[in-house]
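Lay summary. Proteins are chains of building blocks that fold into shapes, and those shapes determine what they do. In this project we predict the shape from the chain. Here is one chain we studied, written as its sequence of building blocks.
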Amino acid sequence: MKLHSFIITLLCAVTFAACNKEDIYPTFAFDENGECYTPDADYISMEEFNSSVVGYGWKHVITHEIDGNGKCSTKDYYEDLIGGGPSQYYFETSSSLKEYMYVDAFPAHGYFTYSYNYEEGNRVSQNGHLVMRIVSLKEDIMKIIEYLGIRADGIKIYGYSTYKRMSSEELTKVQNTYPTDLSNIKSLTTSINDEVNIISGNEFEFDILSYNDLYSVKATNEESCEITCNGDHVKIKLLTNGAYITVSDRFRHFEFSLFSTDEEMEPKGTDIYDLSYSEVVFNKNMEFTEPSENRSLSYENSSIETTTRDGYAGSIISHYNRSYMLVVDTDKKARLIHLQNERLYLKELLPKETLQTLIEKGNGSSISYKLELTTADRRVFQVLPFKITYKE
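And here is the predicted shape, written in a compact code that computers can read:
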């Protein structure tokens, strides 16, 4: 009899647990527009919504992602999520909703305020788009279907979330924790259009066009330049050839490089690196030769390697650092090229338009370059010569 009673009790417990689990993780469906819903949701009238939801803050407890088959994951959606977190809600009025959140892109703790409608089917929407759909509302616990975002493949993400009504003290704490009005964050814009700026001389000026609160302008290496800010106008004076500048405000930043083609800005006495070859010759069939060794070179695949000279210990450029080479021709036209594994590829240094120009000029025409090696923080530290000649 005792065994029989134990088995009945165990079966009842299993059945009760199964019912509870089904109650916690219901099965959901999707309508013809791909919007998630559950046909078993409790009906919540406008009167009940206004009396039990409006005027209160709602604190996030847990969220379970809903898959494409309408099943809930048993894992908390935010447990391992990087760069995001759950929202907290405050229904200010029957038409105004505040959503408090952390935005990693800025980064900032803040809120959005938007108008909403409460519609048939327990649906809370903004401009027709689903914000949440209430599944159940019991005392101070609200369970909802929540629109979480959209993946790169276009699939919408929905979650089954539990929220708890906040006390007035808890709401005040949330408001203090998320103080920034995210809808008023401006873009950080400047009069600079390029990430690489090459000038003659050593002075450069630009304007800060829009920013949030205050802005700052700093060089990665403070010894590379002098920076003067006067209102929204910025002046930079290069002290060495090359500087890496960051413009920042509370939420955003913009980075750019600054170089000069002025010969007086070139470094003096640097004797660290050699090039594997410093001259090439080519013919009308686009066949390339390195003259000193009389070896053929592939235009598509050959590279110029940078090697440290004898007696120098250490390395300034390497594949561990993002290193560059400033290429300056005799007309002081310049461009910055990223070194790949400490190498400069021939096709990057010598574009086909340049080769065609030499062919049109005729036999013996050539271009000389200054190949200016730069550190990871964009300062030129050594200048090496290079020459390309067309021969028929």
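What the prediction tells us: The chain has three domains: 26-184, 189-265, 273-390.
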